[in-house]
Amino acid sequence: MFTGIITGVGRIAAVHALGSSSTHGKRLTISCPADYLTDVGLGDSIALNGACMTVTTLDASADQFTVDISAESLDKTAGLDALGPINLEKALRANDRLGGHIVSGHVDGIGAVIHFAQVGESWELRVLAPTALAKFLAYKGSVTVNGVSLTVNRIADIAGGCEVSINLIPHTVENTSLGNLAKGSRVNLEIDTVARYVERMLTAPAAQ
Prior knowledge:
The chain is mainly beta.
């Protein structure tokens, strides 16, 4: 379980194939900020751009760890198969502040950035979300973009999906990898957990 509050920006330093076929996954080596791994152990969960992964090897002295990501996970996420910056969040402790919203680390769909530009001191990010996620997105509701908990400012159902407009304050741009986004970038999206349960309650068959 996570909150969508990024605790560090790391980098995918190496990508190694775990086999020769398309059914094989990859092993990622993640470089972290100095001392980021001092309280991390083998088997711990860390979200990479919003996708929950398990630490498989750890070298705290070198500020690096590895994860194994399956072919299925690679198919359902974006940005986890190439070198570059990546948002990191350690799993939530029971006594931690819930600074963002409840995030599971399970990516629900991949969106595409259709606009990213500075407006005053802030930045406007517009993402085209898949049509299947449209019913879970609402004005002033929460959405996770590449692991970052964000608030929806505007929403519009258009051909090909649902356009979500988000305001990013300078702190968010400077302290996450979202500042590297550009038009056409693919991003991992996770809907609000509460919306997921509401949808199930409304659509589940009535008890007999």
